Amino acid sequence: MNTVLFLIIGIPLVEIYLFIKIGSQIGAFNTVLLILTTAVVGVAYARYEGFNTLKSGIRQIIKNEVPIYEIMSGATLAFAALLLIFPGFATDIVGILLVIPFTRKLILSKIFKQKIYSKSNNKNYIDGDYEEIGDDDDKKI
C-alpha cells in the first residue's frame, strides 16, 4: 500500500519538476510541442512493434509452440503506449525503453529473473514411439 501511495504522489511530482526545468530551458510552447510529439511518435512506434509481436506470436502458434514471450511483450507494449500517452518526460522515457525490443527484453528478463526467448526451440523432452517387448509365448501355456 505504501508503494502505491508513493507512486501516486511521486510520479506527478517528478513530472512537474521536469516540466518546470525543461520549460525554463526551451520555453513553454516547445515543451508542450515536445510532449505532444513524443506521445504521437511513441504510440505510432508502439503500434508498429505491437503488430510485429502479433505476427511473431502467430508464427509461434503455427509451429505449435506457446508464445510466452510474445504475450509478455504485447502486455508490455500496451503499458508502454499508456505511459507514452500520459504527459510527462519521465513516463515517456520509461515508455520508450519498453517499446524498444532490446531494452524490453532486458527489462522483462530482469523482472522475471530468467531469460525469455522469443524463438526458443529448447524442449525438455524427446519425441518418439515405443513398443513393448515381452514373451508372448509364455502367456499361452
- Please give the radius of gyration in angstroms: 25 Å
Overall mean pLDDT score? Answer: 83
Q: Which stretches are low in confidence, meaning pLDDT under 50 for 5 or more residues running? A: none
Using DSSP, what is the number of strands?
A: 0
Main sheet: strands, sense, barrel: none
- As a percent range, the share of helical residues equals over 70%
Q: Sketch the topology as an H/E string, one letter per element.
A: HHHHHH
Distance between the termini: 75 Å
> What is the SS-derived class?
mainly alpha
Instruction: Write down the overall geometry.
Output: elongated
How many helices? The count is 6
Percentage beta strand: under 5%
Could you characterize what this model shows?
It is elongated, with a radius of gyration of 25 Å. The chain is mainly α and 141 residues long. It is built from six helices and no strands. It has a domain at 36-118.
Topology:
Elements: H1 2-26, H2 28-62, H3 68-85, H4 89-99, H5 101-112, H6 136-140
Helix pairs in contact: 1-2, 2-3, 2-4, 3-4
Brief account:
By secondary structure, the chain is mainly α.
Question: Which features does this protein show?
Answer:
141 residues, mainly alpha, 6 helices, 75% helix, elongated
